[in-house]
Amino acid sequence: MLERMGSATLTTSLSTADLADLRLARHLLEHPGLAARMTNLLGAPIERGLRALPKDWNARIDSIARAALTRAADAALFTMQDRPGETSSRLWHKFGAAASGGVGGFFGLAALAVELPVSTTVMLRSIADIARAEGESISHAGTRVACLEVFALGGRSGSDDGAESGYFAVRAALAKSVTDATQFLAAHHVAAEGAPVMVQLITRIAKRFGADVTSKAAAQAVPAIGAIGGAAINLAFIDHFQDMAHGHFIIRRLERTYDPETVRRAYDDRP
């Protein structure tokens, strides 16, 4: 079905292939969150690791997450070649994340402030790689901001309120910050980490990213996790955000073809 809106004609029903892609995206984006993955990896709930975290952990996590995202944005997005449609290479990025996780696992929580910016940069490059594979242009300001937005998409946890944590709810909550940051980057062509709009966006994303960093840290805090365990934890960490990126950029691709509201309704229409 076609629907005319102003001068644009939008398709208002998804093809069979695109509907299958949308269902895959929903499965990835609404999958249980990182804490559940860490529990499966360790074979036990991560509460044991949470109890081992420093008493001032909650106060420290925001600054660690913000610093990691800021450094990653500067290092990862502005050095990639713009080749929309090129197949992504998730394996190489997983290898890099595993290597940094091995170092973090060996030295423990003390290394997190050093290791996290490295693994976050690797993950952000992988996210951008996935964006390119879904037809996005890395030189486009909106794509760069959308790559950062992935770190706010943590998936569901058992305690989430679906009205507040669902994929489209998170995007709606970030919408103004995303728009402001996109306009800023389009005008200035640089990250300018001190710019208020970039600080606001990264701060808001970091609050959600911090929950996943806490799950990672709790897993690493389990006694005798070691370098091999740290590598395995980082593999789960990057795999989680690769899944979030894959789902996110499928949705964005479909929104370039169809009326976004049609995509949203089809996403909510669970078979």
Could you give a quick summary of the protein structure above?
The protein is mostly helical and 271 residues long.
Describe the structure.
The chain has 271 residues and is mainly α. The protein has one domain. The chain is 70% helix and 3% strand. It has twelve helices and two strands, in the order ββαααααααααααα. It has helices spanning 16-29, 34-42, 47-52, 57-76, 90-107, 112-133, 141-149, 162-165, 167-188, 196-220, 226-257, 260-268, and strands spanning 2-5, 8-11. The protein has a two-stranded antiparallel sheet with strand order 1-2. α4 (57-76) crosses α6 (112-133) and α5 (90-107) packs antiparallel against α11 (226-257).
List the helices and strands and how they pair.
Blueprint (H helix, E strand, L loop, with lengths): L1 E4 L2 E4 L4 H14 L4 H9 L4 H6 L4 H20 L13 H18 L4 H22 L7 H9 L12 H4 L1 H22 L7 H25 L5 H32 L2 H9 L3
Antiparallel strand pairs: 1-2
Helix pairs in contact: 1-11, 2-10, 2-11, 4-6, 4-10, 5-6, 5-11, 6-7, 6-11, 7-9, 9-10, 10-11
Total domain modules: 1
Q: In percent, how helical is the residue content?
A: over 70%
Count of helical segments?
12
How many strand segments? Answer: 2
> Radius of gyration, Cα only, in angstroms?
19 Å
Please give the alpha-carbon distance between the first and last residues.
20 Å
Q: What structural class should be given to the helix and strand makeup?
A: mainly alpha
Per DSSP, what share of the residues sits in E-state strands of 2 or more residues? under 5%
Order of helices and strands: EEHHHHHHHHHHHH
Question: Would you identify the regions where 5 or more consecutive residues have pLDDT less than 50?
Answer: 1-10, 93-107, 157-163
**What would the principal axes of the Cα set say about the shape?**
globular
Estimate the mean pLDDT confidence.
Answer: 77
Q: Largest sheet, described in full? A: 2 strands, antiparallel
Oligomer, anyone?
A: single chain
Strand line-up across the major sheet? 1-2
